[in-house]
Amino acid sequence: MVDAAVRPKTTRPHPDSTDADLTIDIARVTDLLMGTWADTRREARELIKDSAFWRDDALGKDEHRERVLSQLHLLVENKAVHRAFPTSLGGEDNNGGNIAGFEELVVADPSLQIKSGVQWGLFGSAILQLGTAEHHDKWLPGVMDLSIPGAFAMTEIGHGSDVAAVGTTATYDPATEEFVINTPFRGATKEYLGNAALHGVAATVFAQLITDGVNHGVHCFYVPLRGDDGVDLPGIGREDDGLKGGLNGIDNGRLSFDHIRVPRTNLLNKYGDVAADGTYSSAIDSPGRRFFTMLGTLVQGRVSLDGAASWASALGLKIAITYATQRRQFDGADGQEVVLMDYGKHQRRLLPRLATTYAQIFAHDEFLQKFDGVFSGRIDTPDDREDLETLAAALKPLSTWHALDTLQEAREACGGAGFMFENRLVGLRADLDIYVTFEGDNNVLLQLVGKRLLTDYAKQFTGKDAAALAKFAVGMTAGKLFHGAGLRQFGQSVVDLGQVARSVENGLREEQQHQLLAERVQQMVADIAGRLRAAGKDKALGARLFNENQAELIEAARAHGELLQWEAFTDAVRRVDDADTKKVLTWLRDLFGLQLIEKHLAWHLIHGRLSTQRAAAVSQYIDRLCARLRPYALDLVDAFGYEPEHVRAPIASGAERERQDEARDYYAALAASGEAPVLEKVLKKKAKR
Amino acid sequence: MVDAAVRPKTTRPHPDSTDADLTIDIARVTDLLMGTWADTRREARELIKDSAFWRDDALGKDEHRERVLSQLHLLVENKAVHRAFPTSLGGEDNNGGNIAGFEELVVADPSLQIKSGVQWGLFGSAILQLGTAEHHDKWLPGVMDLSIPGAFAMTEIGHGSDVAAVGTTATYDPATEEFVINTPFRGATKEYLGNAALHGVAATVFAQLITDGVNHGVHCFYVPLRGDDGVDLPGIGREDDGLKGGLNGIDNGRLSFDHIRVPRTNLLNKYGDVAADGTYSSAIDSPGRRFFTMLGTLVQGRVSLDGAASWASALGLKIAITYATQRRQFDGADGQEVVLMDYGKHQRRLLPRLATTYAQIFAHDEFLQKFDGVFSGRIDTPDDREDLETLAAALKPLSTWHALDTLQEAREACGGAGFMFENRLVGLRADLDIYVTFEGDNNVLLQLVGKRLLTDYAKQFTGKDAAALAKFAVGMTAGKLFHGAGLRQFGQSVVDLGQVARSVENGLREEQQHQLLAERVQQMVADIAGRLRAAGKDKALGARLFNENQAELIEAARAHGELLQWEAFTDAVRRVDDADTKKVLTWLRDLFGLQLIEKHLAWHLIHGRLSTQRAAAVSQYIDRLCARLRPYALDLVDAFGYEPEHVRAPIASGAERERQDEARDYYAALAASGEAPVLEKVLKKKAKR
User: Does B343 reach chain A within 8 Å, measured CB to CB?
Assistant: First the structure.
């Protein structure tokens, strides 16, 4: 594996346009990408240069699981995973830095990242966030030093996205002052839990808390799984999930509980408690709000997936674009073989994805700042918590889907070489596959965002009387008619006619991109809200209408997330002083914005936001941006800051360039020797003359 | 594994609209899908019900490779793989049936399908199609009975898509009447060859044939790799590709040749020969046409990938849709948990992909008929061969990309369960990943189609004088202006206003779908041709313009393939007599057509083919079709004809339904017992009253 870790030669291809002689300040761009916790990221990257942390593709599932467990111990030894824990227990109370450091582990091995996340980010966080001082003192030291590997037992076979409906019960028995944890039917078995198949000796178990004949909803309990002898306690059921599509370094499995008794004080009681006599109490009166508050404390999983997925996309593009600047195929007009990156289609495949990756990394840093603000207590109001959750639900789906899309396109762009495991792309994709449905199914998360957008929209009308609402409804319709009738289209057409190139760039600059993206979100939400209003208080009709609008609501939520990413990218570009760098990053931001507009072009046309002329020009402008960015493609992936020990893919090591050079040298020498065979077709042509 | 092979109960959900009480003739639909070689397909499916042919997920790469080799021997014993070989040698001269039978192996294990393809479809076919009687008699019996496992050595590290440029040389030495096969540089090493790492004892090697100082282009040679002692012959280099993203039951590897000498008669000489004195001869004068003729005889790989990918998509949908009709999540308006298939978004995710899968299976059967016609000699003209190759280049990319997309969506639609290896989806997706770049990179294939479309387009003007061409150019521009100015849009709007639902269905029926899809292909090709024409005889400008239009040309080729699929689907529906079945299949065809139109909606708007009103209605119509098709979703996947031994995924076995029923029974009994805990929120509501 070390052979692959050779520093590639990265000379920029010859510029062939006036836009091609700019000089990017790569180090500055790297700083920008690394973001607020750049130091922690650099520290983590330095640590994982050690091959002990790398994925070893030769290992089968069982050996891989043991290797990752041993890597977790190495992380403990290196104090790499305790940043979020209380200073009093040896941590740093550093929430943002902790996540940043975790995310970087993805390029060592996603199994390492996720198993660490299970131990310290989920199991440990549940104790930290849902428990109180007694729990912290009792269990966190063991969680931190890995003497208590644990499972986070929330999801069940029968209930994934709908956590509130889990079947596991925790019934309080005042006679013994114990909770009885029970799995009442097969579907209530806890499922897909890391550490459950093998390594977990305890679990934080989410169950319906029942005391005194009342179900107070889902709460979390600390449940030991094994005795000191290492044998499972009586009543604990444990099954191995076996082989998965990826992340096979993690021992996922199932847990069931046959009337397991735990002390009353094993209830992690920060948000709800049961007294010795069975009396339930909580500072949060509403069971619904209490439930969402508890779940909200566990948002960090989504935060770190957003970052890890974005950086995995970056690594995929670093590999594919490096290869594309070395690999040659088919002769060009000059008789020389053309490097892949010079093909129009290849640029179209990789560069918009590069732009999106930049946008996601910038958006992620803002997201991480928000998370750190809330969890440090600096800006921790209920509104901030709600915003943070909405942000998580908007960004995690986009970045995780983007990672799969990008890693797949990167693999295809590398042809057969992309399919070889050693070149990383297929392995990363397989491991990241589950990111799109765990820690919240992406579609369900986006639906949450959509509902929040509808709520915010409705708030505008709070307190307004029927007359005002009616007036608004008329306005809406008028607005739609205005757009629908194409009046605005007409105006654009007049301006555009005959001066396409200039008018396009004029009409699709920063402000227009923002306007198009923002108005789309607003209009979609307003339209959906209008359609849902028809239900009034008819619950069944409401459900039907909601279902009919579900796909569009999810699309509106996606548009909202894309807008946030665009805004983050734009803010990042504003922080750049160097003119050349700013110019290239602005093109990249434009490419991101325009490919979003192109993706939804029909919407913009139907709603009269773009004339057909301007719409047609969007794709041409994207082509032009791709060509402009082509000379900087390598600089832009180098700016991700990955070193050979992070990349490790032989095809991105310069080996391809060496092979190409060898072949070209061979043919040159053959030609010079005068002994090169003549091509039959050349002979035939000569004969014809 | 046998546990999973339980026949699921498949009761249709309660109909809730007047369109929901139709009865589909499932057996008739199965016949339709099975197509021309239904008997062979049934025979193959019956054979692979034997678990000896199934993929065993517990095996690592090395054991998997040996298992697949042993399965190949089982295929020989069962006479399942010789249909395409000459009757004289124990085959059946049945080309179409042979491919149909091969394709079905994909549901047993894609590694089995592809390793069989390497042995009999590539290595064996090269000897059969490029060799002559002497070669057939000498080697085919050993190829057929697997006593000569062989590699098909075409691709090199440095040349995949550009086969004409391979570096391997075969230089004739008249002194010994031998060819010297040589790998002159590292990039000329043969790469990614099945059977090369371990099992191959011979190879068909593609190399530049050089005799008498002239390079006659790429020809194929039979090259022994091992002696009778099983040891590699001197000068043979062999390397193992190791772990891949999928298909790890195949021993892919590299082969290099250090001045290996083979007898002159080892040249597979059907299309070009070298006499003992070194004189080259060929019945095909043009080296270019000769090369493409030789490659064309090997089209069957693409044919079988198209079919295998389509049927793998079918299996993925069978699994995901069966699960979606049993799995419940979140309460509906009636307080009962809703099955996934009843959610609008879930229908949108799965049903258009089901429609596309039907279209591809129908298109594939037509493709297979064409292939059989050419290879049986019934309709074997150069034009037919060219059409066949274009068809292969158009359909294989679409179906293989669709398989990856569908298997991924199916996996996500099954959530965490979809990520478990035992549920098939991740394994199938990983194995099929490489289908999109092997046997011709999909983008390169589509570019070939695009070039053919341009050639056909140009043929219209052959012989026309400059005046006629000029007149045509004016017409073109006028046409564009006509569309661009929205005159047609206006007419549509008038008709559409105020009667959206009816007018939409009127305006988007069969004829209109065909017109929209067909005109898009024509217009795109005409537009690109117009832009390329500017180059005239300027080669460099021509290359630049082509590159600028590359992405769009590929898109035009895709549109062409989609049109062919739509036409095949429509022809298939016409063959159905039963009214109910025809109605449902027509909806499914409409869904296929409309989602294509929706995908390219911006194009239709920009080119004035749809008014904004009608365009907006396309999505609504799709929603309506999804709702109409919902009650038949299960019937439509049952019609694929897969039995439990083919499906094997526990989540599609009925286990989920049993778990759901158990949970519902538990809660019902609890409620009946009067001992169910009261929900805190219910208590709180009561207290407020």
Answer: yes
